[in-house]
């Protein structure tokens, strides 16, 4: 990968890129710490998405490590099926990430609008996710929060993986770093056990199961209830007699949602998924080169819930001083134009 970063331990706002280098058009998304804006880089005229995050919210929610982890990983990752970083900077109040603009919105928004997804859609969706995960796993990184909200469409209907806040290097012992979204968390993560790349493939299986049945295989209102559901029995997908889906996709999903990681498709790597009969005759090279026509048609420019985006945050009493700001967020600065970053 390589460490493609420049740090701002001696941050000088007079020479570094800043929010003033961008013209904000309008908000297009919302996260836990701030909004995402559609912006234009004034000098180049290029369109980006800019993630604006309030430092007081980050500190009050004890999420500094997660935010800095995402920035670090984005600085060393670059791939056609990820949402890539172009700039990162800060001022006293906020952190900013300038990333690829994904005009198609996230997959959760798409699922709400389109209840029925056929097998061609499932295959293309899955192939895009596998392509991004294969790159991450080859670089020894587990995403750990694969879910519809973290999958976003570009203008051509290709899916990209985003949000690396809880991604981690795959290490021998990581049972104490169990976090994620319970409905998509692998059993080994829910049960505070060591986990590796098969955890991401379990989440992929949950997404596909959800696309087919409109609910997740293991459900509950709390993490404990979901864990109990997982421990109670091994769920398997069964199609109705009038289903138009093939036995191949059923087998594919059922092997992804296996509770034991050693029984799960992908335990030995992405090739296990790519060579499954579900992908028989699938042209992976055409997909990688973005020459394949996506079955997902992006027919609106602004694919997001405006009311959700404009919701206000709860007030916080956290105060960020200039000294604490630099201490907590030192090294955040990034400018991709300063590096000759090689494409994968």
Automatic annotation (TrEMBL):
Amino acids binding ATP: 51
Highest rank taxon of the organism: Eukaryota
UniProt cross-references to SMART domains, sorted A to Z: S_TKc (SM00220)
Keywords tagged on the record: ATP-binding, Kinase, Nucleotide-binding, Serine/threonine-protein kinase, Transferase
GO biological process, one term: intracellular signal transduction
InterPro entries: AGC-kinase_C, Kinase-like_dom_sf, Prot_kinase_dom, Protein_kinase_ATP_BS, Ser/Thr_kinase_AS, Ser_Thr_kinase_AGC
Domain AGC-kinase C-terminal: from-to ranges: 280-344
Domain Protein kinase: 22-279
Catalytic reaction equation(s): L-seryl-[protein] + ATP = O-phospho-L-seryl-[protein] + ADP + H(+); L-threonyl-[protein] + ATP = O-phospho-L-threonyl-[protein] + ADP + H(+)
Stated family: Belongs to the protein kinase superfamily.
Alphabetized PANTHER family for the sequence: PROTEIN KINASE DOMAIN-CONTAINING PROTEIN, SERINE/THREONINE-PROTEIN KINASE
Protein name, UniProt field: non-specific serine/threonine protein kinase
Source lineage: Eukaryota, Sar, Alveolata, Ciliophora, Postciliodesmatophora
